[in-house]
Amino acid sequence: MKDYTEDRNLSDIKLLAVDMDLTLLASDGSLPPRMAERIDALGEAGVLFCPASGRPAPTLQMMFPEHADGIAFCADNGGWVIYQGRAAFRDLIRPELWHEVLDFSAADGRCAPVLCAFDRAYVLERDRPYHEDIYKYYKDIRYVRSFDEVDDEADKVTIFFPNYDAEPRFASVYEPRFGKRLYATNAGREWIDFMNLGVSKGSGVAHLCRQLGIDLRDAAAVGDTYNDIPMLSAVGHSFVVANAEKHMHAHADYLVPSNNDRGVAVLIDAILAAKGFEPVGL
Fold first, then answer.
1. Of 138, 162, 181, 267, which sits 20 to 30 A from 38 (CA to CA)?
2. How far apart are CA 115 and CA 77, in angstroms?
3. Number of domains present in the structure of the chain
């Protein structure tokens, strides 16, 4: 796989969309050093920074407090896109469809289904033991005895698998059952996400680029796993971190250092240098 330094057109990049877990974030969950400074430098160089994640927008905004109202966020795997503090795109799953997924997964018994309703998440009372795992991503959790109690708008269903067996369950059960009606994807080894067909990180970035008049050929993305594939396929500059599984190499053009080696920060510095700006440095 080609090294990121072989991309001779880094100076053309106008938008940088970056996955969070195991891509931008180190394995301990920390951001690269001087990240706020890097985002400022990208802005001065004419590059919009866009975290792209399965996380909801409020959680993402909390992670970038200095820039919550200045950058873009591709949240809920593209179901909710925010630019400069305002919604640029929102998608809704039909209630009868999300009820079907939730009821089926609740009956599975080996997982904890979560309804993602933009600012809040709904979880069954029986799954309260997984609170810390879910709270990592959803700060406003409403516990209910049954999903029949919920009357809310939602853009995503996510299912937590505490035994880290989401990948085989996705392949053998969930994708065959729901894949023709919803876009289903693994988000790591412990989550399966469901959005409407056509909704993905790739579509979210495309919506944002259209609204801002940015050619997708001048957009870049960095990822590490399955739910990043549509985003990597959509943009003109695609990168995976060195810690990504080997199968991901087929979905990107270039390789950057691992998340623990701060590959995204290294790439940002390379983009800044290509545009004639001083790299921030680690």
1. 138
2. 14
3. 2
Mean pLDDT (10-residue bins), the chain, 282 residues: 97 98 97 97 98 94 96 96 95 97 94 96 97 95 97 97 96 96 91 96 97 98 96 98 96 98 98 97 80
Which helix (H) or strand (E) segment is 176 a member of? Answer: helix 175-178
Tally of CB atoms within 10 A around 54: 25
Joined together, the tokens standing for residue 51 give 């975290």
CA distance 119 to 36: 24
Assess if residue 280 is contained within a domain: no
As a whole number of angstroms, the distance between CA 220 and CA 7 comes to 11
Domain boundary among 141, 169, 196: 196
Count of beta carbons in the 10 Å neighbourhood of residue 168: 10
Collapsing DSSP to helix, strand or coil, 246 comes out as: helix
Judge whether 279 lies within some domain.
no
Token pair for residue 254?
Answer: 């270039």
User: Which of 66, 60, 96 is CA-nearest to residue 201?
Assistant: 60
Nearest to 41 by CA among 282, 269, 274: 269
Q: Let me know: does 159 contact 103? Beta carbons within 8 Å.
A: no
Residue 229 has phi, psi (to 5 degrees) of: -60, -45
Same-domain status, 184 and 208: no
Of 137, 171, 196, the last residue of a domain is 196
